[in-house]
Specification:
- The protein is α+β, with helices and mostly antiparallel strands.
- The protein contains 3 helices and 8 strands.
- It has a single domain, classed as Alpha-Beta Complex (Nucleoside Triphosphate Pyrophosphohydrolase).
């Protein structure tokens, strides 16, 4: 059963450098490979969250005008994980706002990030842990869907 009343707001930032490589992060908590980003705090806009998470997780300071909004996806949480997000339970919904940033500045692992690595664009789908992030990358960056539009709401960890 889904909790249609809980909608956690989340931001994910896809960073591409001048060589066309994409920055991926390895989570220190779960070991997952993902885009930078995280939950919005009360009173914060999606843009503010993106800027905050880029600094917290990769020590990147960018200008708000460098954020390119790609779109949003709705995700359904597939399992409880109290070690990472204590209030988030299976069946809860999160609305994920995706951004693109073109940036070649040096990124350094920050809060909750074990490692950062620039990956060739054609290897991103194989590198990411979460299916929903793969789908977002395919849709927003590669310009194609890897699942049918009826399946865009997917389960995630």
């Amino acid at each position: 059963m889904y909790n249609i009343f809980m909608a956690r707001q989340v931001v994910r930032v896809i960073i591409e450098n001048e060589d066309g490589k994409v920055l991926l992060a390895k989570s220190a908590r779960s070991g997952s490979i993902k885009f930078l980003g995280g939950g919005m705090v009360e009173g914060e806009t999606a843009n503010q969250t993106a800027l905050r998470k880029l600094f917290e997780e990769a020590k990147l300071k960018i200008d708000e005008t460098d954020l390119q909004y790609l779109g949003e996806l709705t995700e359904i949480i597939s399992e409880d994980n109290p070690d990472i997000i204590p209030d988030l339970k299976k069946g809860d919904i999160q609305q994920v706002h995706y951004y693109l940033v073109n940036n070649s500045k040096k990124a350094v692992p920050g809060e909750a990030i074990m490692d950062l690595e620039w990956i060739d664009k054609d290897a991103v789908l194989d590198s990411l842990t979460y299916q929903t992030q793969k789908e977002a990358f395919s849709r927003f960056i590669l310009g194609k869907e890897i699942i049918s539009p009826q399946q865009w709401t997917k389960e995630v960890n």
